[in-house]
C-alpha cells in the first residue's frame, strides 16, 4: 500500500499510508477507534475505494474475515466454505449448493482440515462456537484462493482461549503456509505475543512500525493516549 488517501466528506481518514505485508509474516495493525485501520484493509479488498495511492497484491487473492462472522448459520459448515469458491462457478450452480461440484467440495474439505474442523463439516454452522465459526470463516477465505488474508478484529468477540486459537491459526497460515496476513486488533498483548510486526495508526497516519517483540508501553501510549507522550 503506497500513499493511500481516503476521505469521507471533509474527514480525512487515511492521510498517505504506506506499508507492506510480506508473504510469510503476520502484521498487526493497532490504533485507537477511528484511526483508519479498517478502512485501510477495506480498501485492499474493494469494500472501500481509496481516493489516491496504490495497492498491489503480488500473488493470489486478498480475502477478509471480520469480527461479525457472517456465516449462513442454518447451512452446514462445508456449504459455507464452498461459498468461498463460488466466484469460479456459473451463477446457476452457485445458487444450488447441492450442485457444488466435487472438486470444490474437496477443496473446501481441505481448507476445513487446515483450520482443524474437518470433523464438523456436516454440522450446522450456527451450532459451532464463536471461535470455531471464525475458523470456518478463515477456511472460506482460503477456499477463495486467498494468499493475502486480512482480518478485521477477528478475535474481539471471542473468549481468551478461542482468541489464542484463532491467533495461532493466523500465525501458522503465515509462517507455515506462506500467506501474507494482516490483522486489526484492539489487544496490544495479543499483538506482542503473536505478530511479527506491528504497525500503529494515529489519525490516519502511520505513527510506528516495530517488531512485535519490541512493542513498548510507551509505543502503546503513543497510539492510545498520544496527549501524554511527546510526538
Ligand atoms: N462508510 C463510511 N462513511 C463515513 N465515514 C466513515 C465510513 N467508514 C469509516 N468512516 C469513518 O472513518 C474513520 C475511520 O474509521 P475506521 O473504521 O477505518 O477506523 P478504525 O481504526 O478501524 O476504528 P475502530 O477501531 O473503531 O474499528 C472514522 O471516523 C469513521 O467514522
From TrEMBL:
GO molecular function, a single term: ATP binding
Keyword Nucleus on entry: no
Stretches assigned to the ABC transporter domain: 1-228
PROSITE patterns, per database record: ABC_TRANSPORTER_1 (PS00211), ABC_TRANSPORTER_2 (PS50893)
Pfam families attached to this UniProt entry: ABC_tran
Protein name, entry field: Phosphonate transport system ATP-binding protein
Native source species: Actinokineospora terrae
Keywords: ATP-binding, Nucleotide-binding, Transport
